[in-house]
Amino acid sequence: MKISAVISPHGFGHASRAVAVLQMLHRTVPDCQFDVITSVPKWFFEDSLKVEEFDYLPFETDVGVVQISPLVEDLPGTVDRLKSFLPLTNEKVFYLAKLLKERKSDLVLCDISPLGVAAAKLANIPSVLEENFTWDWIYEGYLEMEPRLGDFIPPLREAFAMADYHIQTDPVCEYKSIDLVTRPVSRLPRMPRDELRQTLKVSPNQPLVLITMGGIPHLLNSLQPLQNFSEAVFVIPGASEQFERRGNLILLPHHHTFYHPDLVNASDAVVGKLGYSTIAEAYHSGVPYLYIPRNHFRETTPLAAFVERELEGVRVEEQDFIHGRWLDWLPSVLSLPKKQKETINGSQQVAQFIAEKLGLEISRAQ
Hints:
36% helix
Protein backbone atom coordinates (compact mmCIF):
# COMPACT_ATOMS: atom_id res chain seq x y z
CA MET A 1 0.00 0.00 0.00
CA LYS A 2 1.50 3.34 -1.13
CA ILE A 3 0.41 6.64 0.37
CA SER A 4 1.77 9.89 -1.06
CA ALA A 5 1.86 12.85 1.33
CA VAL A 6 1.86 16.17 -0.54
CA ILE A 7 2.78 18.76 2.08
CA SER A 8 2.77 22.55 2.20
CA PRO A 9 6.20 24.04 3.02
CA HIS A 10 4.64 26.99 4.88
CA GLY A 11 6.62 26.69 8.12
CA PHE A 12 6.97 23.24 9.67
CA GLY A 13 3.44 22.94 11.06
CA HIS A 14 1.92 21.19 8.06
CA ALA A 15 4.86 18.80 7.86
CA SER A 16 4.59 18.06 11.60
CA ARG A 17 0.90 17.23 11.29
CA ALA A 18 1.40 15.08 8.20
CA VAL A 19 4.28 13.22 9.87
CA ALA A 20 2.08 12.54 12.92
CA VAL A 21 -0.49 10.89 10.64
CA LEU A 22 2.15 8.90 8.74
CA GLN A 23 3.67 7.73 12.04
CA MET A 24 0.26 6.52 13.20
CA LEU A 25 -0.50 4.93 9.83
CA HIS A 26 2.75 3.00 10.12
CA ARG A 27 1.64 1.72 13.52
CA THR A 28 -1.92 1.07 12.36
CA VAL A 29 -1.10 -0.54 8.99
CA PRO A 30 2.58 -1.63 9.25
CA ASP A 31 2.97 -2.62 5.57
CA CYS A 32 2.21 0.94 4.34
CA GLN A 33 4.86 2.67 2.26
CA PHE A 34 5.09 6.44 1.97
CA ASP A 35 6.18 9.02 -0.56
CA VAL A 36 6.82 12.46 0.94
CA ILE A 37 6.42 15.16 -1.71
CA THR A 38 7.35 18.67 -0.58
CA SER A 39 10.11 21.28 -0.40
CA VAL A 40 10.31 20.99 3.40
CA PRO A 41 13.91 19.80 4.03
CA LYS A 42 14.47 16.06 3.86
CA TRP A 43 16.17 16.02 7.27
CA PHE A 44 12.90 17.00 8.95
CA PHE A 45 11.30 13.73 7.84
CA GLU A 46 14.41 11.66 8.51
CA ASP A 47 14.43 13.00 12.07
CA SER A 48 10.68 12.78 12.63
CA LEU A 49 9.26 9.92 10.59
CA LYS A 50 11.71 7.22 11.69
CA VAL A 51 10.39 4.59 9.29
CA GLU A 52 12.35 2.96 6.50
CA GLU A 53 9.40 2.72 4.15
CA PHE A 54 9.42 6.28 2.82
CA ASP A 55 10.93 8.08 -0.14
CA TYR A 56 11.48 11.83 -0.24
CA LEU A 57 10.63 13.56 -3.52
CA PRO A 58 11.52 17.29 -3.50
CA PHE A 59 8.85 19.39 -5.21
CA GLU A 60 7.27 22.82 -4.73
CA THR A 61 3.76 21.91 -3.64
CA ASP A 62 2.35 25.17 -2.28
CA VAL A 63 2.87 28.91 -1.84
CA GLY A 64 0.96 29.69 1.35
CA VAL A 65 2.07 33.07 2.66
CA VAL A 66 5.57 34.38 1.99
CA GLN A 67 7.21 35.42 5.28
CA ILE A 68 9.64 38.28 5.93
CA SER A 69 10.09 37.01 9.49
CA PRO A 70 8.28 34.48 11.70
CA LEU A 71 5.71 37.17 12.57
CA VAL A 72 5.61 39.38 9.44
CA GLU A 73 4.10 38.47 6.06
CA ASP A 74 5.15 39.63 2.59
CA LEU A 75 1.81 40.00 0.79
CA PRO A 76 3.14 41.46 -2.50
CA GLY A 77 5.69 38.65 -2.55
CA THR A 78 2.87 36.16 -1.98
CA VAL A 79 0.97 37.55 -4.97
CA ASP A 80 4.06 37.27 -7.17
CA ARG A 81 4.59 33.64 -6.15
CA LEU A 82 0.93 32.78 -6.69
CA LYS A 83 1.03 34.18 -10.23
CA SER A 84 3.61 31.55 -11.17
CA PHE A 85 1.88 28.79 -9.19
CA LEU A 86 -1.70 29.20 -10.42
CA PRO A 87 -3.85 28.25 -12.24
CA LEU A 88 -3.68 24.57 -11.38
CA THR A 89 -3.85 23.63 -15.05
CA ASN A 90 -0.16 24.30 -15.70
CA GLU A 91 2.80 21.95 -16.09
CA LYS A 92 3.20 21.55 -12.32
CA VAL A 93 -0.10 19.72 -11.88
CA PHE A 94 0.49 17.52 -14.94
CA TYR A 95 3.98 16.64 -13.73
CA LEU A 96 2.74 15.77 -10.24
CA ALA A 97 -0.17 13.69 -11.59
CA LYS A 98 2.28 11.75 -13.77
CA LEU A 99 4.59 11.26 -10.80
CA LEU A 100 1.77 9.94 -8.61
CA LYS A 101 0.85 7.42 -11.30
CA GLU A 102 4.45 6.34 -11.80
CA ARG A 103 4.87 5.87 -8.06
CA LYS A 104 1.71 3.73 -8.00
CA SER A 105 0.10 5.79 -5.26
CA ASP A 106 -3.06 4.34 -3.75
CA LEU A 107 -3.97 7.51 -1.83
CA VAL A 108 -2.79 11.13 -1.73
CA LEU A 109 -2.76 12.84 1.68
CA CYS A 110 -2.69 16.64 1.23
CA ASP A 111 -1.75 19.02 4.03
CA ILE A 112 -2.77 21.59 2.76
CA SER A 113 -1.46 21.61 -0.81
CA PRO A 114 -4.15 22.46 -3.38
CA LEU A 115 -1.74 21.22 -6.03
CA GLY A 116 -1.77 17.76 -4.45
CA VAL A 117 -5.57 17.62 -4.53
CA ALA A 118 -5.74 18.76 -8.16
CA ALA A 119 -3.00 16.33 -9.26
CA ALA A 120 -4.69 13.41 -7.49
CA LYS A 121 -7.95 14.21 -9.26
CA LEU A 122 -6.16 14.36 -12.62
CA ALA A 123 -4.43 11.03 -11.89
CA ASN A 124 -7.73 9.46 -10.75
CA ILE A 125 -6.27 8.63 -7.33
CA PRO A 126 -8.37 9.22 -4.18
CA SER A 127 -7.25 12.15 -2.04
CA VAL A 128 -7.63 13.20 1.58
CA LEU A 129 -7.47 16.90 2.45
CA GLU A 130 -6.27 17.44 6.03
CA GLU A 131 -6.55 20.99 7.38
CA ASN A 132 -7.52 23.38 10.09
CA PHE A 133 -7.76 26.15 7.47
CA THR A 134 -7.47 26.44 3.70
CA TRP A 135 -5.61 29.15 1.81
CA ASP A 136 -8.72 30.68 0.25
CA TRP A 137 -9.99 31.37 3.79
CA ILE A 138 -6.62 32.82 4.86
CA TYR A 139 -6.39 35.13 1.83
CA GLU A 140 -9.89 36.49 2.52
CA GLY A 141 -8.48 37.98 5.72
CA TYR A 142 -5.85 39.96 3.78
CA LEU A 143 -8.10 41.51 1.10
CA GLU A 144 -8.11 44.99 2.63
CA MET A 145 -4.30 44.98 2.79
CA GLU A 146 -3.72 43.24 -0.57
CA PRO A 147 -6.84 43.15 -2.82
CA ARG A 148 -4.98 41.26 -5.57
CA LEU A 149 -5.18 38.11 -3.43
CA GLY A 150 -8.87 37.99 -4.33
CA ASP A 151 -7.99 36.74 -7.81
CA PHE A 152 -6.63 33.52 -6.34
CA ILE A 153 -9.46 32.67 -3.94
CA PRO A 154 -11.93 31.08 -6.43
CA PRO A 155 -9.42 28.68 -8.08
CA LEU A 156 -8.04 27.63 -4.69
CA ARG A 157 -11.53 27.02 -3.30
CA GLU A 158 -12.34 24.97 -6.39
CA ALA A 159 -9.15 22.93 -6.00
CA PHE A 160 -9.76 22.13 -2.33
CA ALA A 161 -13.32 21.05 -3.18
CA MET A 162 -11.88 18.32 -5.45
CA ALA A 163 -10.73 16.25 -2.47
CA ASP A 164 -12.49 12.89 -2.16
CA TYR A 165 -12.31 13.04 1.64
CA HIS A 166 -12.06 16.11 3.84
CA ILE A 167 -10.72 16.04 7.41
CA GLN A 168 -10.46 18.99 9.80
CA THR A 169 -8.21 18.89 12.86
CA ASP A 170 -8.88 20.92 15.99
CA PRO A 171 -8.33 23.76 16.58
CA VAL A 172 -10.36 24.40 13.41
CA CYS A 173 -10.62 27.93 12.04
CA GLU A 174 -13.90 27.50 10.13
CA TYR A 175 -15.94 24.35 10.60
CA LYS A 176 -17.50 22.87 7.47
CA SER A 177 -19.76 19.96 6.61
CA ILE A 178 -17.05 17.35 6.02
CA ASP A 179 -16.13 13.69 6.63
CA LEU A 180 -14.31 13.94 9.98
CA VAL A 181 -13.29 16.44 12.68
CA THR A 182 -10.49 15.21 14.97
CA ARG A 183 -8.84 16.24 18.20
CA PRO A 184 -5.49 18.08 17.81
CA VAL A 185 -2.97 16.12 15.71
CA SER A 186 0.57 15.98 17.05
CA ARG A 187 3.66 13.83 16.89
CA LEU A 188 4.09 11.65 19.97
CA PRO A 189 7.01 12.12 22.39
CA ARG A 190 9.68 9.42 22.25
CA MET A 191 11.82 10.10 25.30
CA PRO A 192 10.57 10.24 28.90
CA ARG A 193 10.53 13.72 30.40
CA ASP A 194 13.14 12.96 33.08
CA GLU A 195 15.49 11.32 30.60
CA LEU A 196 15.52 14.31 28.28
CA ARG A 197 16.04 16.73 31.16
CA GLN A 198 18.95 14.59 32.33
CA THR A 199 20.43 14.79 28.82
CA LEU A 200 20.12 18.59 28.96
CA LYS A 201 21.61 18.57 32.49
CA VAL A 202 18.45 20.10 33.95
CA SER A 203 17.45 18.82 37.38
CA PRO A 204 13.97 17.25 37.78
CA ASN A 205 12.62 20.15 39.86
CA GLN A 206 14.25 22.98 37.92
CA PRO A 207 11.76 24.95 35.76
CA LEU A 208 12.46 24.47 32.04
CA VAL A 209 11.05 26.89 29.45
CA LEU A 210 11.09 26.17 25.71
CA ILE A 211 11.24 29.21 23.42
CA THR A 212 10.24 28.24 19.88
CA MET A 213 9.36 30.18 16.76
CA GLY A 214 7.90 27.26 14.83
CA GLY A 215 11.03 25.95 13.16
CA ILE A 216 12.02 29.30 11.64
CA PRO A 217 15.54 30.50 12.55
CA HIS A 218 15.44 33.71 14.54
CA LEU A 219 17.59 36.01 16.59
CA LEU A 220 16.48 37.25 19.96
CA ASN A 221 16.95 40.98 20.49
CA SER A 222 18.83 40.23 23.69
CA LEU A 223 19.51 37.16 25.76
CA GLN A 224 20.38 39.21 28.81
CA PRO A 225 16.84 39.38 30.31
CA LEU A 226 16.70 35.58 30.14
CA GLN A 227 20.06 35.22 31.82
CA ASN A 228 18.87 37.54 34.58
CA PHE A 229 15.87 35.25 35.22
CA SER A 230 17.85 32.67 37.16
CA GLU A 231 14.79 30.81 38.45
CA ALA A 232 14.45 28.89 35.15
CA VAL A 233 16.47 27.27 32.38
CA PHE A 234 15.62 28.35 28.83
CA VAL A 235 16.12 26.09 25.81
CA ILE A 236 16.09 28.03 22.53
CA PRO A 237 16.20 26.22 19.15
CA GLY A 238 17.56 28.37 16.32
CA ALA A 239 19.55 30.70 18.60
CA SER A 240 23.03 29.36 17.85
CA GLU A 241 24.96 27.59 15.11
CA GLN A 242 25.80 24.76 17.50
CA PHE A 243 24.78 23.37 20.88
CA GLU A 244 25.83 25.91 23.50
CA ARG A 245 25.25 26.23 27.24
CA ARG A 246 25.47 29.75 28.71
CA GLY A 247 24.52 29.60 32.36
CA ASN A 248 20.76 29.07 32.40
CA LEU A 249 20.50 29.20 28.59
CA ILE A 250 20.63 26.16 26.32
CA LEU A 251 21.10 27.41 22.74
CA LEU A 252 20.44 24.99 19.90
CA PRO A 253 21.00 25.24 16.14
CA HIS A 254 18.04 25.35 13.76
CA HIS A 255 18.60 21.69 12.85
CA HIS A 256 19.41 20.07 16.17
CA THR A 257 19.37 16.52 17.50
CA PHE A 258 16.50 16.88 19.96
CA TYR A 259 13.01 15.79 18.95
CA HIS A 260 10.67 18.79 19.30
CA PRO A 261 7.76 16.90 20.95
CA ASP A 262 10.26 15.65 23.56
CA LEU A 263 11.36 19.22 24.29
CA VAL A 264 7.75 20.30 24.70
CA ASN A 265 6.94 17.34 26.94
CA ALA A 266 9.99 17.99 29.15
CA SER A 267 9.19 21.69 29.60
CA ASP A 268 7.17 23.50 32.24
CA ALA A 269 6.12 26.22 29.80
CA VAL A 270 6.35 26.91 26.07
CA VAL A 271 6.86 30.41 24.69
CA GLY A 272 6.69 31.24 21.02
CA LYS A 273 4.88 32.04 17.81
CA LEU A 274 1.27 30.91 17.76
CA GLY A 275 1.25 27.90 15.44
CA TYR A 276 -0.70 24.69 14.99
CA SER A 277 1.97 22.07 15.67
CA THR A 278 3.21 23.74 18.87
CA ILE A 279 -0.37 24.10 20.09
CA ALA A 280 -1.09 20.42 19.42
CA GLU A 281 2.10 19.23 21.12
CA ALA A 282 1.57 21.49 24.14
CA TYR A 283 -2.08 20.40 24.33
CA HIS A 284 -1.25 16.71 24.53
CA SER A 285 1.64 17.32 26.95
CA GLY A 286 -0.46 19.59 29.18
CA VAL A 287 2.09 22.44 29.08
CA PRO A 288 1.10 26.12 29.54
CA TYR A 289 1.68 28.21 26.41
CA LEU A 290 2.74 31.86 26.32
CA TYR A 291 1.88 32.64 22.72
CA ILE A 292 3.01 35.44 20.41
CA PRO A 293 0.21 36.28 17.96
CA ARG A 294 0.63 37.05 14.28
CA ASN A 295 -1.80 39.95 14.36
CA HIS A 296 -2.62 40.06 10.63
CA PHE A 297 -2.80 36.29 10.10
CA ARG A 298 -6.45 35.21 10.09
CA GLU A 299 -5.69 31.93 11.87
CA THR A 300 -4.61 33.84 15.00
CA THR A 301 -8.07 34.51 16.47
CA PRO A 302 -9.41 30.92 16.56
CA LEU A 303 -6.04 29.49 17.59
CA ALA A 304 -5.66 32.01 20.43
CA ALA A 305 -9.18 31.26 21.65
CA PHE A 306 -8.36 27.54 21.76
CA VAL A 307 -5.07 28.13 23.61
CA GLU A 308 -6.66 30.32 26.25
CA ARG A 309 -9.52 27.85 26.71
CA GLU A 310 -7.54 24.59 26.69
CA LEU A 311 -3.86 25.32 27.48
CA GLU A 312 -3.66 27.90 30.28
CA GLY A 313 -2.63 30.28 27.52
CA VAL A 314 -1.15 33.75 28.03
CA ARG A 315 -0.92 36.26 25.17
CA VAL A 316 2.50 37.94 24.75
CA GLU A 317 2.78 40.82 22.30
CA GLU A 318 5.81 40.86 20.02
CA GLN A 319 7.43 43.89 21.69
CA ASP A 320 6.93 42.40 25.15
CA PHE A 321 8.67 39.25 23.91
CA ILE A 322 11.56 41.10 22.26
CA HIS A 323 12.28 43.27 25.32
CA GLY A 324 11.77 40.53 27.90
CA ARG A 325 8.74 42.06 29.61
CA TRP A 326 6.95 38.70 29.38
CA LEU A 327 9.28 37.42 32.10
CA ASP A 328 7.19 39.38 34.63
CA TRP A 329 4.33 36.92 34.01
CA LEU A 330 6.45 33.78 33.87
CA PRO A 331 6.51 32.94 37.64
CA SER A 332 2.72 32.65 37.77
CA VAL A 333 2.73 30.45 34.65
CA LEU A 334 5.42 28.18 36.08
CA SER A 335 3.34 27.69 39.21
CA LEU A 336 0.62 25.99 37.16
CA PRO A 337 0.57 22.17 37.16
CA LYS A 338 0.71 20.21 33.92
CA LYS A 339 -2.78 19.25 32.72
CA GLN A 340 -2.41 16.34 30.32
CA LYS A 341 -5.57 15.76 28.33
CA GLU A 342 -7.41 12.47 28.69
CA THR A 343 -8.20 12.34 25.01
CA ILE A 344 -7.21 10.55 21.82
CA ASN A 345 -4.52 12.04 19.59
CA GLY A 346 -6.13 13.19 16.36
CA SER A 347 -3.45 11.35 14.37
CA GLN A 348 -5.04 8.07 15.44
CA GLN A 349 -8.46 9.24 14.26
CA VAL A 350 -7.04 10.22 10.85
CA ALA A 351 -5.10 6.96 10.47
CA GLN A 352 -8.14 4.84 11.33
CA PHE A 353 -10.29 6.84 8.90
CA ILE A 354 -7.80 6.33 6.06
CA ALA A 355 -7.39 2.63 6.83
CA GLU A 356 -11.15 2.11 6.80
CA LYS A 357 -11.63 4.01 3.53
CA LEU A 358 -8.90 1.94 1.87
CA GLY A 359 -10.24 -1.31 3.34
CA LEU A 360 -6.98 -2.01 5.16
CA GLU A 361 -6.59 -4.38 8.08
CA ILE A 362 -5.75 -2.46 11.25
CA SER A 363 -3.00 -3.83 13.46
CA ARG A 364 -4.02 -4.65 17.03
CA ALA A 365 -0.49 -3.72 18.19
CA GLN A 366 -1.01 0.04 17.64
